[in-house]
Design goal:
Strand order of the largest sheet: 2-1-3-4-6-5-10
Number of strands: 12
Largest sheet: 7 strands, mixed
Order of helices and strands: HEHHEHEHHEHEHEEEHEEHEHEHH
């Protein structure tokens, strides 16, 4: 298994070798984000800006006006918090083709503590006009998303996880922007997940299937823009939808699905599984996933509770 950050470094280095427009601007975290792969293989395509996230965005925007396709590389929390004003004013409002590679997103930065864990990023970036927001499930999808984003003429925010996860997709998988992916057909409730949490959710569902539950599993790699017609086709006529995300329950995937389902005007119940409204903490990653109910075992428990819970 490969981590998404490793795939990001390797893919960007490959793209930069054949396209001089591709640049990587790093915020002094190259060995962590694996932007160091680009620095080693294609040094002329790598710019070390240092711990200056606002300047990262400003320089990337300036380079984009000269015809370059810059990627900004740092932890997700620094993009969505420290550099948010620059992203809003320079990138989003101008529709600049700046790509935001948000490494170490979610809980999987446990040793650095809650200051470095970004569990609000999807809510923030989803509300940003003109911003494309993508959370790939595994290494295969991450590579395809990177290649798509490199050619897209506009701003893109991509959520990358630090650690490798069990693969979701094979080599034959093809990513299509905005399209949901049905990972498992089923006649029971629909489980919708995004990002690397899809891998853990798939494991949870597999264990529940052995217990007789017939769940449908839908993965949403693209949170914005979303093909709503394809989304409704994916959930079908099911009246119970459960979202699972490594993110706050407020404003992320759960918020998106609730907004869409509310517009139907029918009696579909949406249950959101994610982090409750509060800050996370410093601890090993596996401990955090279990504590906040996002490990495969805990997701299985929470899905069981949601399925058997009282219905309006």
């Amino acid at each position: 298994m490969k981590a998404q950050r490793q795939v990001w470094g390797e893919t960007l280095a490959e793209l930069a070798e054949t396209d001089s427009r591709v640049l990587v601007l790093d915020g002094d975290l190259a060995t962590s984000t694996r932007a160091d792969i680009v620095a080693e293989k294609v040094p002329d395509s790598f710019i070390q800006v240092g711990i200056a996230e606002q300047n990262l965005i400003g320089m990337a925007f300036g380079l984009s006006t000269l015809g370059y396709r810059p990627w900004v590389s740092t932890f997700g929390v620094f993009l969505t918090h420290r550099a948010l004003d620059q992203i809003r004013m320079l990138v989003s409002q101008t529709k600049a083709p700046v790509k935001l590679a948000a490494a170490y997103s979610g809980l999987l930065n446990g040793s650095s503590g809650k200051t470095h864990q970004d569990i609000e990023d999807l809510a923030i970036m989803r509300a940003m006009p003109n911003m494309t927001v993508i959370a790939p499930a595994d290494a295969r999808e991450a590579e395809l998303v990177i290649r798509w984003a490199a050619e897209y003429d506009g701003p893109v925010y991509v959520r990358f996880a630090r650690d490798a996860v069990e693969p979701v997709f094979g080599d034959d998988y093809e990513f299509t922007i905005g399209k949901p992916v049905v990972l498992r057909e089923g006649s029971g409730p629909v489980v919708v997940s995004t990002g690397v949490q899809t891998s853990r959710t798939a494991q949870a569902i597999a264990s529940l299937v052995t217990q007789g539950h017939d769940l449908r599993h839908v993965h949403l790699p693209t949170l914005k823009p979303l093909d709503t017609e394809a989304f409704f086709a994916a959930i079908g006529d099911h009246t119970e939808v459960i979202t699972v995300e490594e993110h706050s329950e407020i404003g992320g995937l759960g918020g998106l699905v609730a907004e869409l389902v509310a517009g139907l005007g029918v009696g579909t119940r949406v249950t959101r599984i994610g982090l409750a409204d509060g800050w996370s903490e410093s601890a090993p990653n596996d401990f955090l996933l279990d504590r906040y109910g996002l490990s495969p075992e805990r997701v299985a428990e929470r899905l069981t509770d949601a399925i058997s819970g009282p219905k309006q």
